[in-house]
Amino acid sequence: MANYKLISFDKIPSTQTYALDLIASGRAGDHVAVMAEAQSAGRGRYKRKWVSHHGNLYVSFIYEIEERDPKLSYTVAVAIAETLISFGIKPTIKWPNDILIDNKKVSGTLTEYSGNYVVVGIGINIKSNPTVQDYQTTKLDNYIKVEKSDVLKRLMNNLDKWRKKDFADVRARWMDLATGLKGKVKYRGDTVDLIGINENGALILRKGAEYFLTYGDEISL
């Protein structure tokens, strides 16, 4: 499918873990995609459980890299958003790469590095969405009927397309789609303004008249 080698399962503990095991055992390669119809131990950021019932898209992409790239999460978010836009849906991006429809989460991403590879795990709610205490969720079926294979194919194409673009283009599109910009966030216990991202993928924050940059998971929305 597209330029990818697809490894597909009915059910495994985690596509992300399987992909990392491929890397650890020396069996990984660039543009390998590990997909499962369901997961028994799916996980998201901060090791949160990712509820993984049949009918949704659960896939981990393996890419060969030269070094860690803080800009990658923005590229992936834009690629997912553009995939949904291609179906006539109007998503927004919540920092750094949650995809929302009507302010409800429909997709999440987990990025992990191992050796000369990065594994980008993506979950998209298509047929069902979990009930989560901290935030609202939704599914594509609430808006449009789509085939999972079509979503995967378009996602692969968009990932390849946006990974090849200059980050200036990615940044501009991310800023177009982002929600919460100029809003208040928490940074090391302080309330600050989230202004955007710079040309290197760093977050631009403002406290009073002071502007400063940060990377990583140091803010909460």
Shape: globular
Number of domains: 2
Under CATH at level 1, the class of the largest domain stands as Alpha Beta
The level of helicity is 10-25%
- Low-confidence segments, given as residue ranges, are none
- What is the strand arrangement across the widest sheet? 1-2-3-7-6-5-4-8
Number of strands: 13
Distance between the termini: 37 Å
Going by helix content, strand content and strand pairing, the class is alpha+beta
Determine the mean pLDDT: 90
Which sheet architecture does the biggest sheet show? 8 strands, mixed
Rg calculated over all Cα atoms: 17 Å
CATH T-level fold name of the largest domain: BirA Bifunctional Protein, domain 2
Total number of helical segments? 4
In sequence order, what are the helices and strands, one letter per element? EHEEHEEEEHHEEEEEE
If classified by CATH, what would the architecture of the largest domain be? 2-Layer Sandwich
Let me know the CATH homologous superfamily of the largest domain: Bira Bifunctional Protein, Domain 2
Beta-strand content: 25-35%
Any key phrases for this structure?
eight-stranded mixed β-sheet; 2 domains; 23% helix; BirA Bifunctional Protein, domain 2; globular; 221 residues
Topology record:
Elements lengths: L4 E8 L2 H10 L7 E8 L17 E8 L7 H14 L6 E3 L3 E4 L2 E11 L2 E8 L23 H16 L3 H11 E2 L4 E4 L2 E8 L5 E5 L2 E5 L4 E2 L1
Parallel strand pairs: 1-2, 4-8
Antiparallel strand pairs: 2-3, 3-7, 4-5, 5-6, 6-7, 9-10, 9-13, 10-11, 11-12
Helix pairs in contact: 2-3, 2-4
Give me a quick take on this structure.
With 221 residues, the protein is an alpha+beta fold.
